[in-house]
Write a structure and sequence with these properties.
- The chain has about 375 residues and is α/β, with parallel strands linked by helices.
- The protein has 2 domains: about 80 residues, Urease, subunit C, domain 1, CATH 2.30.40.10; about 280 residues, TIM Barrel (Alpha-Beta Barrel).
- The strands form 6 sheets. It has a 6-stranded mixed sheet, with no helix packed on it.
- Strand 22 and strand 23 form a beta hairpin.
- Helix 3 packs parallel to helix 4, helix 5 packs across helix 6 and helix 8 packs across helix 9.
- The chain is globular and about 60 Å long.
- The two termini are about 15 Å apart.
């Protein structure tokens, strides 16, 4: 079955096109052609002059649709979260699970494994191998120093489901990072009090990205450069950032972008209001906090983060979209998402000049 998107400004990831049609065949992108060449039996989607880009990819989102997944590890919650996230323009995501009990890890792994969806890329487990000094909203009692046995058990249980693990480099041995990498799990540095040298060492051992840059980590200081400086000085290591102007000031996002260029990508780090269980998130006007006021999560969607980067940081719309699609796909080593190109998955979002979502397609199917 063919679908043809017409009357759109198309951001492919490498160029911006007008006066063309995007052709899909089933769940894949077939190509970009002249509208006059579209077959008469193709389904036509008239974009009405709006923008069309690859669907967005969020590597850290904890909930949506009224549910925080770690507090509601069941199929109903997962389906509601997936519906809410995809309808916001995000067509691929990792569900983030904060430092937690073994029972919670067991349940979230089981539920994701038993309820596959093309938009669910897997789990991003944030902890428990982090620094108590930089735990932020994470529960101190569940934080631990990893052993090889701990990591092997997580790998065995989470096979095919756990795709990213945030750790503090200073608590990990090289064997642990190698073991995770060898089993296809992306290792991120975060919730860490690492010195500059400890962080550089962790990157050399195989840590390939950084979780919510500047938040939950040792700070950039002229006498103690910390984890951010180690990131700036290490080639080929990525970093996620929360572009809400609350977790990170927009001027600091601009500085980080100048330093990291294509290595900086967007995440929402969004949570959902939750007033029961281990993690309590209270809805404020523009953020979520713990009951004591500690910042605990954002209200961002990925499209809102793109908008913020364009309007408040001065990043071009094309580059902001790459930060929300192409670069996260690179982090995850996904070769057929994050761009509009022949053979890529038909994950697409149509949005207007005010960044309002009009259509979302996941593998060619309306979300």
């Amino acid at each position: 079955m063919y679908k043809a998107f017409i009357n759109a400004t198309i951001f492919t990831g490498s160029e911006t096109l007008t006066g063309k049609a995007l052709l899909l065949k089933n769940d894949r992108i077939e190509g970009i052609i002249d509208p006059a060449s579209v077959s008469k039996d193709a389904e036509i989607i008239d974009c009405g002059g709006s923008f069309l880009s690859s669907g967005l990819i969020d590597l850290q989102i904890a909930g949506g649709g009224g549910y925080l997944f770690s507090s509601n590890p069941n199929a109903r919650a997962l389906n509601a979260i997936t519906d809410a996230i995809t309808q916001s323009g995000t067509t691929g995501f990792l569900i983030a699970i904060p430092t937690n009990s073994p029972d919670v890890y067991h349940e979230v792994i089981r539920v994701v494994r038993e309820n596959p969806h093309p938009a669910i890329l897997g789990l991003h487990i944030e902890g428990p191998f982090i620094s108590p000094l930089r735990r932020g909203a994470h529960i101190k009692e569940f934080i631990k120093t990893p052993t090889i046995e701990d990591v092997k058990a997580l790998i065995d249980e989470g096979k095919g489901v756990v795709k990213m693990l945030t750790v503090a480099p200073e608590v990990c041995d090289p064997e642990i990072i190698k073991l995770l990498n060898d089993n296809g799990i992306i290792v991120a540095a975060g919730h860490s009090n690492a010195t500059f040298r400890e962080a550089v060492r962790g990157f050399k051992w195989g840590i390939s990205t950084t979780t919510h840059l500047f938040n939950g980590m040792s700070q950039l200081h002229h006498r103690d450069p910390g984890l951010p400086a180690a990131l700036f000085e290490t080639e080929n290591v990525f970093a996620s950032i929360i572009a809400d102007g609350i977790h990170v000031d927009y001027s600091m996002i601009s500085i980080a972008k100048k330093m990291l260029k294509e290595r900086l990508f967007l995440i929402s780090d969004a949570v959902e209001e939750n007033l029961k269980g281990s993690y309590l998130h209270v809805r404020q006007n523009d953020r979520f906090t713990l009951p004591d006021g500690t910042l605990s999560g954002s209200m961002l969607s990925m499209m809102k983060a793109v908008k913020n980067c364009v309007e408040n940081v001065g990043i071009s719309i094309e580059e902001a979209l790459r930060m929300a699609s192409e670069y996260p796909a690179k982090v995850m080593n996904i070769s057929d998402k994050g761009k509009i190109a022949p053979g890529y998955k038909a994950d697409l979002v149509v949005f207007d000049k005010d960044y309002n979502i009009e259509h979302v397609f996941v593998e060619g199917v309306t979300a």
